[in-house]
Amino acid sequence: VGEKFETPDNRLWLAVDDTADPAVPIETIEATFAGFISVELEPASDNSLALQISNQRFYVTPEYREGNLADRLMTRAVQYAREDGCPGLVLTVDIDNRRALRYYSKLGFDIARHRMCTSIDNLHLE
User: Which of 19, 20, 33, 55 lies 20 to 30 Å (CA to CA) from residue 96?
Assistant: First the structure.
């Protein structure tokens, strides 16, 4: 995982609480984990770049969901996208994740396509 974030097109922001000095190295910090967002620059269909966020890469702990932490993490991702000239954001979300779907809809995301999954053993072929 660490190698992936050493490339210029990947970013990870970690949100912590209860720390006296947020500038200390992460391995020495004593704080409460609150959430994270991880993004990746990817080529878009129109040959521009899009900022990709997947549901496995954006998480806020239940204790911090009532505040604005999700908005603050998303704002940081959008700032990064603007700095790199990305005109759009792309994300994936599980269709059953109603909380995430409500949040993304509130932000203005539209459903563009569905990704369907099944195990090989569950395929019904004739």
Answer: 33
